[in-house]
Amino acid sequence: MTSPSPAPASSAGGTAFPHPVSIDLIAALRRALQALPQPPGRFAVAVSGGADSAMLALHAAAVARELGAGVVLLHVHHGLQAAADGWRDQVQALAGLLGLPLRQARVEVDAAGGKGIEAAARDARYAALARLAHEEGIGLVLLAHHRNDQAETVLLRLLRGTGLAGMAAMAPLTSRDGLAYLRPWLEQDRETILQAARQFADASGWQPVQDPTNADPRYTRAALRELLAPALDARWPGWRGIVARHARHMAEAGEILDEVAREDFAALEPDVDGVSFSLAAWRQLSPARQVHVLRHWLERNGARMPTEARMNDLLRQLRGLHSLGHDRQLRVEQAGHVVRCHRGRVWIEPRPAPAP
């Protein structure tokens, strides 16, 4: 629920924060930062100029004063919208209001790379954020994803046929490109954030930007938000909280299965590097655990997960091998790697580069 009214935040020295803030959002951010293994001396906030990231910047500025930490705003200009220069100007104005330093990067999005425009823009954004953070000597970046985003992510992944790990959706703390990304508001409803944005706009005159693609059903996430979410809202008003809770349960189940996979793999007589394991020992596992430990093995060796059809083919071949695994004909290629079997052991190795 949204706090009935904004409350001033105070720094460690007792000086009131000069902008209205939400009690709920402040508390959630404070908990997330204090739960980190080591309190950050400096951290960054990724800011697009929209209400969500702007409010994260506002509340991060308030909490940082309490903790005596430094905050840097990071903005990535994609150049995909005619209004993008205006968004950059709004972010600059926000940084000035909050008295925070701002670092910016402009990127070129490879729309023809086969990923789709949304995925390509996301990859370009993360690469730019990593570059800016590393240049600042910062190892922690805050992202403004909230419960509504989490619920949408779960539905999108379900519709794409993702596995258990994908159904866990976004984790509160993740690592990428040598950085830690913290999402402190995954349990917060977006209405709480929008109310804080309205309060801030009334007090300061600053308005968040509006990205038209967020309501354009030609884009996958926007289609879910504009076409499917209203029907769910009408029939199941609390669906976002239910789906987000489902994501937490999937994350917990995934952790348990990861423990099982590590224990199973340790019993397969792996070599020191984990590149090979005993075929006979693997065959002692139940079919479901055979699949799961194979996925664990592929992942730890940096191989991409195979499709269901390719995994079934690999399983069929491994289960059909001579018990001593002398079949030198087994050779399964998987996205830059090769799986083979020799002398009773299953091996994985990078696929040799083609001869020039």
Automatic annotation (TrEMBL):
GO terms for biological process: tRNA modification. InterPro entries: Rossmann-like_a/b/a_fold (IPR014729), TilS/TtcA_N (IPR011063), tRNA_Ile_lys_synt (IPR012094), tRNA_Ile_lys_synt_N (IPR012795), tRNA_Ile_lys_synt_subst-bd (IPR015262). Residues 43-226 form the tRNA(Ile)-lysidine/2-thiocytidine synthase N-terminal domain. Keywords: ATP-binding, Cytoplasm, Ligase, Nucleotide-binding, tRNA processing. Its main location: cytoplasm. It is an enzyme of class 6 (ligase). It is found in: Cytoplasm. Transmembrane segments: none annotated. ATP binds at S48, G49, G50, A51, D52, S53. GO terms for cellular component: cytoplasm. GO terms for molecular function: ATP binding; tRNA(Ile)-lysidine synthase activity. Ligates lysine onto the cytidine present at position 34 of the AUA codon-specific tRNA(Ile) that contains the anticodon CAU, in an ATP-dependent manner. Cytidine is converted to lysidine, thus changing the amino acid specificity of the tRNA from methionine to isoleucine. The N-terminal region contains the highly conserved SGGXDS motif, predicted to be a P-loop motif involved in ATP binding. This is tRNA(Ile)-lysidine synthase.
